[in-house]
Each structure stands twice: as structure tokens, then as C-alpha cells.
Design brief:
The complex is a heterodimer of chains A (about 260) and B (about 450). Chain A is of the alpha+beta class. In chain A, about 40% of the residues lie in helices and about 25% in strands. Chain A is built from 4 helices and 10 strands; from the N terminus they run αααββββββββββα. A 5-stranded mixed beta sheet of chain A has the order 3-2-1-5-8, with no helix packed on it. In chain A, strands 4-10-9-6-7 form a 5-stranded mixed beta sheet, with helices on one face. Chain A is elongated. Chain B has about 450 residues and is an all-alpha fold. Chain B has 19 helices and 2 strands. Chain B has helices at about 1-20, 40-45, 45-50, 50-65, 75-80, 90-95, 100-110, 115-120, 135-145, 150-165, 170-180, 180-185, 225-230, 245-270, 280-295, 315-325, 335-340, 380-390, 415-430; strands spanning about 405, 410-415. Chain B has a two-stranded antiparallel ribbon with strand order 1-2. In chain B, β1 (about 405) and β2 (about 410-415) form a beta hairpin. In chain B, α8 (about 115-120) runs antiparallel to α10 (about 150-165), α11 (about 170-180) packs across α14 (about 245-270) and α14 crosses α15 (about 280-295). The chains are: A alpha+beta (about 260), B mainly alpha (about 450). The interface of A and B includes residues 158, 160 and 258 of A.
Chain lengths: ~260, ~450
């Protein structure tokens, strides 16, 4: 009777423990339905970032399920009342080799897989087309606690009185490789556009080129992804992607509005 | 023994989880209340000593402006007869202006797109509660109850309700509490908990002194002036752009800021005129209240209007502007050089003069470095024109229209044309990018000081 009670207790504890990883994995399978998964991709390189995410997610999933299964099994297997004395063991060379080699191989796989995405996003800036790092569409100034974008005057200068300056709203053309230069006026900020899968820190003292090509017209969230002070939560913006001709009209209207007298 | 330990562990786990399970996490809005303007009370010794009179003052202010949770203006009967109700001040202004009303509706339709789509589809129960618009939600629920059997009516009136939404003072006070209070304080005294970290400090609305308006002299700001500050922010200060809220919400915030400013100025007047023998009588309170409100109502008349396009900048005009700018006052020039310096870098000789480097709020202030192309009131030529025309309220930057200057041995007063020449010269100075933080540099360039 006592033995049966003990067995049932082992089963219950094991099942309770098993429920934790099962529920954890289940939230991942359901997240999309709950609207907790990724927003749509609207940049040319967004898919390559997601691919990396999924690669790592699968690696982690397999490892997680494997280790959790072992853990649950051990909890069940070794909670049996057993009069045998435990043996002392001082490591196992073969095991050490295996659990060093496998993560090392995985790390190399991750390192090699990310190279293309990294060079695309952070190194291969457009060299031709309307905007290049030398001739960017705009400058974005991050400061506590807002984003301000500066478009050059009609001659392409970023200094001078005819520069267009807009807070909060960043307007860019669709299907165009857009380059901006990111600066911080004070502390670290991070320029994060989830739908573009783009994140770049704004570092005080640095002038950092950033590029993207938006593929769908619409308005997308820009958020600061680096805790920058007490007002970090309100440091938001919008990126408005317009068809090319509408963008040109918008910029022309902005330039004209500079000379309004209302 | 083992069983006993298990029981204890279970009891411990239950005890630990009890506070989590028993407490409902529901952080409601903080309750604010208006306090009296202490520094102003202290200035009047009679009032500072008289707790009864202070209570009377607080009561008078509550009668005129309500409480922080439920602010409102006491509307004078003759105002209502004349078609003016300060409780609908901004709303009437916006809805009587076709262009403004159209932009308000467009902004509302974008903000409440999901709600309007749900109403159009006839799924009234699927309309989601909008954020920061409790009054709108209340009106929608009332409308839903009223038109329960009339789907077509509910549809058309519901869409109109969301599209034409203009927040009540009460809803705007709640938004203020959420977004502005921590810097500007409950009474708009610029003394919120984060204000001490900032340079320049947040505006104290209570003296009715606002730096950035498009108006002559020391006029109170117009609705449009305050709206613009909320929408654009003030570059290089801690005042950010609040464009993430709808236009309607920003208009509502303007209304609430105006209420706080009028309340604060009325309080200052009542406190300064308080006499122990006379006390606060209703006529006195009313007179001061009417006086302050009339100043705010008169603001639009003070607009520095300019008809027609911005004149063309020519080398001759820039040269004339340079001459005015760089000639000191004692030689008959506009004397800009004394603060802004020969090259406009904000390094003129007066920066060492304590009187010229302190503003009306007692804070240190530096002249703008004009080579950076950073203009806090806006970078349009008309903005610079108005800034030079009227100066900056509360700072050493003076009014220039009508200033006496001497040219070619002739004494005359400065005209609008002279001011345009100064504008063109100042614009020609903008040859550098805005200052940014430097490696190891501590403060970020032109973040502090300046006007």
C-alpha cells in the first residue's frame, strides 16, 4: 500500500514537471494565433533575419526538448526507493568532449549562417542609386526623448537654413534603397523598426550609416530599443513608406511649406 | 517526518503565492489635487500668515476652475450670451475653422480606424475601447444604449462620434496626468518630479509667460502656438514631439494647459492683491478672473501677420542684415552682436553680464549659436521673422520692431524690411550641423541653455 502510494506520488510529480516544458513549447506553437509572433516583413532583407532567428530557435528547441525529456525521466527513474549506495564519480572525459564539441559545432554553424545577413545589412551599403552613405536621403538625430529627421535642402546640403526638420514622422520612398545617417545628441539610443527587422544603435560621437529598402507602403512603428533614460518609453516614431512619386510630391510640399507665412 | 515536511512546504508555497493571487493588479490613475503656489503666497506676508485666507483662496480657485480630477471653467453669463464658453474654447475654435476641422477629422479617422471599421461592419460589441479617451468611450456606450434598436442610426451617429471626437477637459486632464505631469507638475508650475533633471527647466505656466508664440509683445499664446509646441516639441530641450497622440488629444491638452495657466495667473493676482482687512470678496475674484481670461481671448489679435510670400533674399539684403547685426547699439545698430557675437556663435561680450545671462525664471541662459541652424521656435523664415520682431518673452532677447537705429547719420525706427534683412543674414549663418554629443564630452553640445 505504501509502495503504491509512493509510486503514484512519483508519477504525479513527474507529470507536473513535464507540464512545464510542454506548456512552454505549446505557447510557441500558439503565439502566432494570439498575435504575439512577428509583425509582417516589409523590408528587402527582413526574411534573412527571420531565417537566422528560426535557425537558432530550432537549435534551442531540440536542445530544450532533449534536456527536459532527460530531466523528467531522471526525476521519475531515480526517485524510486533504492537501498543501493550512490557511487562517486569524478567526471567522464568522453562526455566532456561531446558536450564541448557539439555546442562548438553549433556555434560555427550560427557564425557561418549569419555572415550573409550581416554583410547585407551592416556592410554592403548601396553604392549606386539615388542614396548612398556619402549622399544619404536623411539624417536621423536621436535625443532624449525623441527622433528627429533632417532632409537636405534642394542642393543636397545638410547644413544651411533650408534643411527640412521633422520630429516623430519619418517619410521614405517605397522600393528604393534608402540610406540614412544615424546620430545621437546625448546618450545611447537604438533605432529599431520591427517590420524592417532593422536595429542599429545610435552612439554618441559616431555617425552611423543605415540602409533599408521598404517593400510595402504603409506606416510602421519606430521605437527606441536601448534604455536611454526616464523618458525611454515615450521615445517613439513612425516610418511612413510612400510610393516613389508620392514621396517626391511630399518632399516638394515640405520644401514649399518652409516658405509659408501662416 | 517526510510527510510533515511536505505539509510545511505546501503551507509555505501557499503563503508565498497568496499575495500574488489575492491582489488584483489594477494601477488606476493617480489622484492629483491642486496645491497653492507657495512661493507666491510667501511673497504676501499677510496672506502667508493667514491660513483662513489661504483656504479661501483655494476655495475661490476651485469655484473658478474645479478640481484636478474634474477641471472646468466657471462660465460668465455674458460670455455664454456672446457665444463664448471657455469649457469648449478649443473645440469651438477648431470646429469653426474648416481646414482645422478637416485635419482633426482625418486624424480621428486614422486613430480610431479599427473602431470605425467595426461600427461600419455593424459589429457594435466588437468596438475596442480606445486608449486615453474615456469620455469618448462613455459617449459611445450612452449612444449604444440609446439607439439599441436602431442599427442604422447607431452606425451613422457612432461613426460621426468617433470622427468628430474632441476630448473634454476632464479627459485631457487625465492625459496630462499621464504624459505632462511628471515634468510640468499638477498645477503646471514646471515643478514635476523629473523637472530638476532638465536644463532648460519645464515651463511654469502660472505667470502666463510663454516664450514661443507668433505674437507681438508679451501676449498670451494662441491655441495654435501651444498646439505647435505639442506637435513639434522644442528641439534641443527635453520637450519632445507628442505626435503619437491624435490631433484631437493635442488640442485637448492645449485646452487643459490654458486652464492651468489661467488658474495660475488668477491665483498670482489674487495673492498679490490680498489685503487683510478686505479679504477675498467675490467681486475681487471675479474681476481678476475676467481680466486674465480677456488677455487669453485677445491673443489672436496680437498675431504678427505677414501677407504675401516671403521676400527674396538677395546679397544686398544679407549685407544690410549683417551691418545691422554686427553694429553695436551705441553706434546705432540692432546690437545683436553684443550677445550673439560677430560670427553669430553666441559668444558676444554680454554673455559674461549676469543680467544678460539670466532669464525671468532665474535660470542661466545662453544666446543661441546661430551657426548650428537650430531654432527652437521653428526654422521657417517667418518663424525667425517673428522671433526677431517680438523677441523672446522672459529672456534677454528683445523686441526689435520699432527699435531706434541710426543709418547714414539718420535716426529711424526699425521696419519689417530691416527685420527680413536680419532674417536673411541669420539664415546665411547656418553653416554647421546641429551639435551632437562628443566622445567623452559630457553634455551634448547645445542641449543646455540657449533660447
Amino acid at each position: 500500500m505504501a509502495a503504491l502510494k509512493h509510486f503514484l506520488l512519483r508519477v504525479v510529480v513527474t507529470l507536473l514537471l513535464l507540464a512545464v516544458p510542454v506548456l512552454g513549447v505549446w505557447t510557441f506553437t500558439e503565439a502566432d494565433r494570439w498575435g504575439l509572433w512577428f509583425p509582417p516583413i516589409v523590408s528587402s532583407y527582413g526574411a534573412s533575419i527571420d531565417k537566422l532567428f528560426y535557425l537558432i530557435l530550432w537549435m534551442v528547441t531540440v536542445t530544450f526538448i532533449g534536456t527536459e525529456a532527460l530531466l523528467v525521466w531522471f526525476v521519475f527513474r531515480y526517485s524510486k526507493k533504492d537501498p543501493t549506495r550512490a557511487i562517486f564519480t569524478h567526471g567522464n572525459h568522453k562526455l566532456e568532449m561531446i558536450w564541448t564539441a557539439i555546442p562548438a559545432v553549433l556555434l560555427v554553424i550560427v557564425a557561418i549562417s549569419q555572415m550573409e545577413a550581416w554583410t547585407t545589412v551592416k556592410m554592403n551599403f548601396p553604392t549606386e542609386g539615388p542614396y548612398t552613405p556619402e549622399k544619404p536621403l536623411m539624417e536621423v538625430y536621436a535625443s532624449q526623448f525623441d527622433w528627429r529627421v533632417r532632409y537636405p535642402d534642394a542642393q543636397g546640403n545638410f547644413t544651411g537654413a533650408d534643411v527640412i526638420e521633422v520630429p516623430y514622422d519619418i517619410t521614405v520612398p517605397e522600393d528604393t534603397k534608402v540610406v540614412l545617417r544615424l546620430k545621437s545628441r546625448d546618450v545611447l539610443h537604438s533605432f529599431f523598426v520591427p517590420t524592417f527587422r532593422l536595429k542599429q544603435d545610435a552612439v554618441p560621437g559616431m555617425d552611423i550609416p543605415v540602409w533599408f529598402e521598404a517593400t510595402e507602403p504603409g506606416s510602421y512603428d519606430l521605437i527606441c530599443a536601448e534604455l536611454c533614460g526616464w523618458g525611454h518609453y515615450k521615445m517613439a516614431g513612425k516610418i511612413h513608406v510612400l510610393p516613389k512619386d508620392e514621396f517626391d510630391a511630399w518632399l516638394a510640399a515640405k520644401r514649399a511649406a518652409l516658405y509659408a507665412t501662416d | 517526518m517526510i510527510q510533515c515536511r511536505n505539509r510545511r512546504a505546501a503551507a509555505l508555497a501557499a503563503a508565498l503565492s497568496f499575495p500574488v493571487l489575492a491582489c488584483e493588479f489594477n494601477p488606476g490613475a493617480a489622484e492629483l489635487s491642486y496645491s497653492l503656489n507657495r512661493p507666491v503666497i510667501e511673497q504676501n506676508q499677510d496672506l502667508a500668515r493667514d491660513a483662513g485666507a489661504q483656504a479661501q483662496l483655494a476655495g475661490a480657485l476651485e469655484m473658478l476652475f474645479g478640481t484636478a480630477a474634474s477641471p472646468r471653467f466657471l462660465a460668465e453669463p455674458e460670455w455664454i450670451e456672446g457665444g463664448f464658453d471657455p469649457n469648449y474654447w478649443g473645440e469651438d475654435l477648431v470646429k469653426n475653422d474648416d481646414a482645422l476641422r478637416a485635419s482633426l477629422e482625418a486624424s480621428n479617422r486614422a486613430t480610431f480606424a479599427a473602431q470605425i471599421a467595426a461600427i461600419e461592419a455593424g459589429t457594435f460589441d466588437a468596438v475596442a475601447r480606445p486608449r486615453h479617451a474615456d469620455d469618448l468611450w462613455g459617449w459611445w456606450e450612452e449612444l449604444k444604449a440609446e439607439k439599441s434598436g436602431d442599427a442604422a442610426g447607431l452606425k451613422s451617429e457612432g461613426i460621426a462620434l468617433f470622427a468628430e471626437y474632441y476630448p473634454s477637459l476632464r479627459a485631457s486632464a487625465a492625459l496630462y496626468r499621464n504624459q505632462c505631469y511628471h515634468c510640468h507638475g499638477a498645477e503646471g508650475g514646471g515643478d514635476g518630479s523629473t523637472s530638476a533633471f532638465l536644463e532648460p527647466r519645464p515651463r511654469d505656466y502660472r505667470p502666463g509667460k510663454f516664450k514661443f508664440t507668433a505674437l507681438k509683445g508679451k501676449a498670451r499664446p494662441r491655441h495654435e502656438d501651444l498646439f505647435r509646441i505639442l506637435a513639434e516639441g522644442i528641439y534641443t530641450t527635453a520637450m519632445p514631439s507628442f505626435r503619437r497622440f491624435s490631433d484631437a488629444q493635442l488640442h485637448g491638452l492645449v485646452d487643459y494647459v490654458r486652464l492651468l495657466a489661467i488658474r495660475g495667473e488668477t491665483e498670482i493676482l489674487l495673492a498679490s492683491f490680498y489685503e487683510p482687512d478686505e479679504g477675498l470678496n467675490f467681486a475681487n475674484v471675479q474681476e481678476n478672473y475676467l481680466d486674465v481670461v480677456s488677455k487669453w481671448r485677445a491673443a489672436p489679435e496680437q498675431l504678427i501677420a505677414f501677407e504675401g510670400p516671403v521676400p527674396e533674399s538677395t546679397p544686398e539684403r544679407i549685407a544690410h542684415g549683417r551691418a545691422l547685426f554686427t553694429t553695436p547699439g551705441d553706434k546705432g545698430g540692432a546690437n545683436c552682436v553684443s550677445c550673439h557675437g560677430e560670427g553669430g556663435r553666441g559668444d558676444g561680450p554680454s554673455v559674461n553680464d549676469p543680467k544678460q545671462s539670466t532669464d525671468d525664471w532665474g535660470r542661466p541662459i545662453a544666446p543661441r549659436d546661430l551657426t548650428r541652424g537650430v531654432y527652437r521656435f521653428g526654422r521657417r523664415p517667418i518663424d525667425l521673422f517673428r522671433r526677431i520682431y517680438a523677441g523672446i518673452n522672459g529672456t534677454p532677447m528683445p523686441e526689435h520692431i520699432g527699435m531706434t537705429i541710426t543709418e547714414n547719420g539718420q535716426q529711424r525706427t526699425m521696419t519689417e524690411d530691416d527685420i527680413w534683412d536680419l532674417v536673411f543674414f541669420v539664415r546665411s549663418l547656418a553653416t554647421h550641423a546641429p551639435a551632437v554629443a562628443q566622445h567623452g564630452g559630457g553634455h551634448g553640445g547645445d542641449l543646455g541653455g540657449g533660447h
